[in-house]
# Entry
Amino acid sequence: MTVARRGGLRRGGVAALEICAVAALYYGSAELGLLQQLVRSQVTPLWPPTGIAVAALLLRGPRIWPGITLGALLANLQLGPSYAALFLIVVGNTLAPLCSYALLRSAGFRLELDRLHDALALISLGAFTGTLVSATAGSGTLVLTNALSTDRFWTTWWVWWTGDAMGVLVVTPVLLVLCRAHLPRQMTPSRWAEVLLLLAATACVGLIDTSSTPLLFLGFPLLIWAAFRFRLAGAAPVALAVSIFAIIAANHGSGPFARHGMLTDMVTLQAYNASSALTALLVAAAVSERDRSQKEIARACGHLAELVSRLSLTGTQPIPPTADSRPRPGSGSARGPGPGPGPEERHHSRSTYRPAPPPRRPTKPG
# Structure
């Protein structure tokens, strides 16, 4: 009984630590996300806490949901506008990642994200479907409490929804990669040089994106390069960096976001962020599937070569069955245990058998 009690206390302590860690990460990432707020100091084009919540649920299971609720409460406590509205917003922020988690689990999502099926499930179910709950609950609550005018509902709803969706698209894959990250055992100097070159190119693209030059499309070659050469481990961080650069440019009104309204800027920004995230995830998943197929083909060829070598060493060759060696209906093997006639006998009986002529009728005498 004492051992069981200690085990239960240990498991409870571990669960409490995980809940506190999720709450701290949620709150810290919310403070970072609010640095780029657009609507009422509460709605941002990228909401990292939703991506952290979905990743935590996928990694540790639904038992850590109190950490999401606690983090959402701490993040929205100073934003108001009232305790009733705060309660509804926290409920929406908790239910949205839970819905995404349930949808991904029902779709057979794998944490490796190495299949097109997993990438499409994360995009369509985890990002674009599950986050509808938080966007609708939060925007509707602000309108019902008169904290937001009715004519700004759809703008706020769009920014809220796309912000949560972008959090899942660009933050969740990075966390799934980090949970399996390890130092490479055999890394050639040329490979390290390529990694450093990719980091330098990403930094240069960031400087260009945040300047007055409208060259956001320079991020797509980086995404394709990272996905082809480093799979999801390279594509996910680059997609996150490219999205952050675009958000900074939109918030400063530079580049393609200059001299436009907020709704136009947000549509342009989220279309760009969604396109970059989709490119990174889909290309990385397709390359991973290609690599896995090549490994399976190589493994099958190795097994076949081993079988052929064994047969050549033993001097035996498999003899394919012929039509004459198959048992015929009504043969001896079907009637009883005794062997039936061989192929030569059957061939001989078929070739020498002649039907007897009919008997002649006696002719009547003349």
